[in-house]
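All the exercises in this workshop are built on plain-text protein records. Sequence and backbone structure share a record, each on its own labelled line. The structure tokens are whole numbers drawn from a learned vocabulary of backbone shapes. The record below serves as our worked example for the rest of this section.
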Amino acid sequence: MTQAAINLEFSDADRDNIEEACQAVEITDNGFFVVRDNNGRVLARFDSAGDLLLTDGELDENATISPNANASEFIIKQGANDYLVMIDAASGNMYIKGNLYEEVTGSWTIPDNSFIIRRADEVPVAVVNSEAFTHPTLGSVPAASLILDGVLVTSQWPQ
């Protein structure tokens, strides 16, 4: 990824940001998409069944997301200042601008420019949609919603 940043003539600061983003995310051999903090602690794990595990925090829906330039955060954004999702490394909390939808299966059209996590067979298991759309069973889905094939499991989930 660093070589790609150099080839695209990014500034040193932009290359550093890209490098940090790449280090914060891991796609494992066993099908997990993992978000870690700077110390390697797992903050979130999406699995191939579409389940999301937040290891220390909770999910805040319909959140106003205001990143802190001095904090360690995983951010999905659209454009310069449209923040869709943020995971705060200090608290482990995940903030989404839209709603959470769980156990959403079947075929549906994903809006362009959405953030998609797919299984090895290319089937989407988690989506953060880039724009509002109408889902065949959910109805109207606001932009920046988190749509999971599986369920959300947090540290507060009943054991």
Confidence is low (pLDDT under 50) at residues 1-8, 22-28. The chain has one domain: 2-154.
